[in-house]
Specification:
alpha/beta, Rossmann fold, 6 helices, about 35% helix
């Protein structure tokens, strides 16, 4: 599928990111991409975050491909049963946090920690780093296995964010384009 045939919904993670984050650049670069906004980026509420993703999906006109980073990726997984009925065709999940790490973050609604272990109802890729402070590579592999996702090894890429040197992240955009071609 081509970008012009899709509505691309991008879900940032905890904190919402900065204008230099790779997903903010993708929103600017991809003509059919929209950022999913949240009322509270710093103290994520499970119900609110899932409702916002579903609300954005309801407003689409074309098949949906979801892109999520960190807690945004995990939110997409939590919302997946709703999204499949709304035209979601695929998900590109980057650096979702592990249950182990979420348990140490009191500002995040603990319901996010109940990570689904069932296959997603659409194709997905989980991009994982070998030195992500929010999930070991083994934890990422386990999530990918549970969700039926293809795992993409990003090497030693930290949390795949600005702090780890991934502002533009052209490799990610190329990997995303390759994923779209498989749909």
């Amino acid at each position: 599928m081509k970008v012009s045939d899709l509505d691309i919904l991008i879900a940032p993670g905890h904190g919402g990111g900065s204008p230099d984050h790779w997903y903010a650049r993708w929103v600017d670069k991809l003509s059919t991409a929209r950022r999913i906004e949240q009322a509270d980026w710093n103290e994520p509420n499970y119900d609110d975050w899932i409702a916002q993703i579903a609300d954005h999906a309801r407003k689409t006109e074309r098949p949906i491909v979801l892109v999520g980073h960190s807690l945004g990726a995990l939110s997409i997984v939590h919302a997946a049963p709703l999204l499949a009925d709304m035209g979601a065709r695929a998900a590109f999940l980057v650096a979702p946090p592990s249950q182990r790490v979420l348990a140490t973050m009191p500002e995040i609604d603990p319901r996010f920690s109940d990570i689904p272990s069932t296959p997603l109802p659409f194709p997905s890729v989980l991009v994982a780093s070998r030195d992500d402070p929010y999930a070991t590579y083994e934890e990422s592999e386990a999530m990918a296995r549970d969700w039926g996702s293809t795992i993409a090894d990003a090497g030693n890429a930290g949390h795949i964010n600005n702090e780890s040197g991934h502002g533009p992240w052209p490799e990610g955009l190329m990997r995303f384009a390759g994923f779209l071609k498989t749909l």
